[in-house]
User: Fold Beta-ketoacyl-[acyl-carrier-protein] synthase III from Dyadobacter endophyticus.
Amino acid sequence: MAFSRITGLGFYVPDNVITNDDLTQWMETSDEWIRERTGIQERRYFEYGKDTNYSMAAAASRQALDRAGLTPNDIDVIVYATITPDYFFPGSAFLMQRELGMDGKPVIDIREQCSGFVYALSIADQFIKSGMYKTALVVGSEIQSSWIDKSTAGRNTAVIFGDGAGAAVVSATNDPQHCILSTHLHADGRFAEELYVKDPGSSREGRPVSQEVIDGGGHNVYMNGNAVFKHAIVRFGEVIQEALEANGYTAGDIDLLVPHQANLRISDYVRQQLGLAESQVINNLQRFGNTTAASIPIALTEAWETGKIQEGDLICLAAFGSGFTWASALIRW
Ligand code: UT7
Assistant:
């Protein structure tokens, strides 16, 4: 029986730092409001002409590959999560594959929003466990800054999001002591419209992109923040407990929790629910905001780079987002 383990991590964020004060040039908001409600202090915005969704993913992937001691040609499959692709189709995985010179290797583009990376990791884990592939490149990459409505009308979502990419190389191993122990995926489409971008959608009268559609504002992110918040604090706890129970552990066994970086208040709530110390939970949204599918691989990479992950540690990844989706992965490092 094969298992899979993460053998290399990398991330890329654009150089362009946007502070909370910078946002006040576009919308009525304040550093105080954003810090108090979310914990975010700054985020990165991509630089047009320099960064693309796939170039950021490629940069993160190159770093992950280097650290795994591999080259792009060692990869059997790419699983790429994003809700902000470069093109409507084909997906950004194709563009990153071309960028890395991996022509002919299969690519899988998925969405699954803020849970995208954990879903992608789970797909890679199943491919490896089944024996179909030996090495996978799992990516989360987002450019939110070109999509969000930076006027006051869009401020409840615009202040949250940032741009960036993270990547993990996932390799086959025979060692059940150092591997991805399990992944747990959930979705509930009854809440699809609580956090969504409606347009351009295909199921409409007339062309998906027209002045009428643009004037309707359906291309902007809509979020019922309160509903998202309330579901998030329940689902995070549930899906972490599910992962622990599936492997015979309790919260006290967790060495490090790497949650999706949505809101510091959500993260603190979950931490307290589990009885974890502040040092056991990775929070970097203060510097990067919510980078959707990229947030977990960026946070995981930073945790690894700063020595917060040691061999043998029990690491839990957990996510919640639009869909609604929620997911976890338990890893014995
Ligand atoms: O990654 C996917 C998962 N996403 C999440 O988990 C996000 C979950 N939701 C949240 O984190 C919170 O809902 C937010 C931080 C996004 C918003 O906080 P909130 O307390 O739910 O704010 P609200 O939207 O209910 O708005 C409260 C007030 C409103 O003013 P009134 O009507 O009370 O006068 C808003 O107009 O705050 C106002 N407001 C702002 N004021 C200054 C909303 N956004 C802003 C802003 N700056 N950026």
User: Anything to note?
Assistant: The chain is about 35% helix and 25% strand. The two ends are 18 Å apart (CA to CA).
